[in-house]
Amino acid sequence: YPEAETLIMEEDAQPLSKPIIEPVKSKKFDLLENQEPVTEFSFEFLTGLMSRPELIRNVTIAGHLHHGKTSLMDMFVQDTHIKAWDPDRTYRYTDTREDEQQRCCSIKCAPLSLVMQSSRHKSYLLNLMDTPGHLNFFDEFVASARLADGVLVVIDIVEGVLSQTEKLLKYAVQENLSITILINKIDRLILELRLPPADAYHKINVLIQHINSVLGSCPQLSADPELAEKYYMSPTKGNIAFGSSLFGYAFTLKSFAQIYSSQFGQTFDVEAFSKRLWGNIYYNKSTRRFYKKPPQGMGAKDRSFVQFILEPLYKITAHVIGEEKDELKPVLEELGVYLKPQMYAIDTKPLLKMVCQQFFGDMNCLVDMFVDHIPSAKAGTVTKVERNYMGDQSSKVCSEIKECRSNGPLVINIAKLFHKADCQSFDAFGRVISGSLHKGQQVRVLGENYTTEDDEDMTVKEVTNIWVYESRYRVEISKAAAGNWVLIEGVDQSILKTATITSLEGTEPLEIMRPLKFNTVPVIKVACEPLNPSELPKMLDGLRKISKSYPLAVTKVEDSGEHVIMGSGELYFDCILHDLRKLYSEIELRVADPSVNLCETIIDSSNIKCFAETVNRKNKFTMISEPLQKGIAEDIEAETVSMDWQSKKRAKFFRSKYQWDALESQSIWAFGPDRSGPNVLIDDTLPGDVDKAILSGIKDPIVQGFQWATKEGPLCEEPIRNVKFKVIDATIANEAIHRGGGQV
Fold this sequence. Notes:
Elements: H1 43-49, E1 56-63, H2 69-80, H3 98-103, E2 110-117, E3 123-130, H4 138-147, E4 150-156, H5 163-174, E5 178-184, H6 187-191, H7 197-216, H8 219-222, H9 225-230, E6 240-244, E7 249-251, H10 253-263, H11 270-275, E8 282-284, E9 289-291, H12 304-322, H13 325-334, H14 348-360, H15 364-373, H16 377-388, H17 396-402, E10 411-419, E11 426-434, E12 436-438, E13 442-446, E14 458-462, E15 465-469, E16 474-477, E17 479-481, E18 485-489, E19 499-503, E20 524-530, H18 536-549, E21 554-557, E22 563-567, H19 570-584, E23 589-591, E24 595-596, E25 610-613, E26 620-627, H20 632-637, H21 647-658, H22 662-666, E27 668-672, E28 679-683, H23 692-697, H24 699-711, E29 723-731
Parallel strand pairs: 1-3, 1-4, 4-5, 5-6, 28-29
Antiparallel strand pairs: 2-3, 6-7, 8-9, 10-11, 10-19, 11-18, 12-17, 13-14, 13-19, 15-16, 15-18, 20-22, 20-23, 20-24, 21-22, 25-26, 26-29, 27-28
């Protein structure tokens, strides 16, 4: 080889433990499809629907741990993917990581884009996101909720509304997401609890009342009757479905009524019949009429829901479990269920699953529920922009973004980063709010700290590839239009958590979409260091990747020089340290004992006035502090009240709810830290003592100091909570040069 370079080494610098030619390491952390699977729909048709935002539904699937979310996603996958699915096996298709399969617990959210038909045989593009149910991974739900227009809450009928369910219901109301409910594991009422059908009805009814009481406790609904009606959950409205993800079926009142209609030759109005299948409605067989009170000879247990839905379901289950093949076959044929002869020889559980799937049909009922109760991507974009766009809502460019047009200004909200198969880099996952993204396009990536005045957190990148992300495989596309979820390659380098992507061509400056706001705070921290000090650069690179991969995780260097990871719980840290060791760094770590972050507060009003002077001794500020009333801190954090409101609206809120006087409620300067923190700064000075015009001129540096002080308190540099700070006096220099921001 004439062009080869020859190196002669006098001494072997390589250790004996290291081979001269190292073997190629193949990492396998994710379960991926070897090739693009065969589906009921063509991907050309899917890409065609991507240009019709009115036919797109963006839905996140949420619920408590082990309530059946991932099993529900399996139902969607098996309904749309042509494969020899084993009815006796649980696939957990959207649990794509090896450790998720081993733990039987979702750790990361996983998207899935499917084309499915409604009962009216109209096709829709469903962008679904499976989310973890463990309380530690609530940040994954928050990231998925940013991209979705509605949420399907999966609730175990036996366990009911638990802490995580309650938390995500309230968060969905806070984010103005449409809510639908799936009451799952109906089979447990029959096979485990063995409740009579009438008692099962009461169990379901109590659960629905509990759901409505949780939603009714949200302050947003108590102030707006129209919004309260939107979030009222009832089977007759069609926003509650029932099902069993274990046995592969789901139904609503309307879909069950449709089964009766097909059995009896469509001789009655399905819509009217479905409205009479819930509540205190009774059917008299002799008169063939429905009554609101039990007819003579019937008890309160003979409600129509029990008679027409629960009793047939109980009978199907009992027949399949208890009868032999010869007796079972004619019963199933009466129901329109036809099985191959060899199917009757399989175990009871997969047999019951196949019978239920044939009897209830495909997932049309859930598609109908999404179509009727969750806004389309076009309609949902208006809400997303109003809540999350940080620019002027009345500007022309904001109005264009709300229209969700494929030829509008390009805006993509990146909410999640997914690592590649080699775990060395990431792809950005987000929602195209407006415009169209093309492969090979040059775009501007705006970070979380970008503003139109300070564009330091902005880079220009080239989009090297675009995919529709299907959890275990990717479908490459050349263009993504407004309203869709898209996975983007080539833009991840400058993204830490979230970002906004815009085009280079736009003339009018665009602001960013608001960074994710979590209801949970990373309160637990651990310090770590490499076992081999020479591997510190590898660990630092791994920590950067951890920060990208986990939305809530914070990595920083303490004043002592320790590298600290902050997270939300024990399982959260277990997963972070596993990823750091195995996926991102491949080194051994030494980890310190975990410690908990605290908050500083006060328990009584200040006894003395506290003052501070500027360095030039020409300005002096006097302040006192006192505890906030109970409930104010929670309202600020939940954004029930905001500094973005007009002064009159904010003052009215504090006067009516907390009985503040008119002067105090109109003199609120800031909440802190970070604009929605649980502390309040108030200007309590009197116009006769202080020149209000001059004081207003130096308001910004005072607020900046307040934000810094509440973020790192005086006792142990922990955040301050539940404190009201009042500026009661100010001596200010008359010359502007002596009262600048640096002095204050």
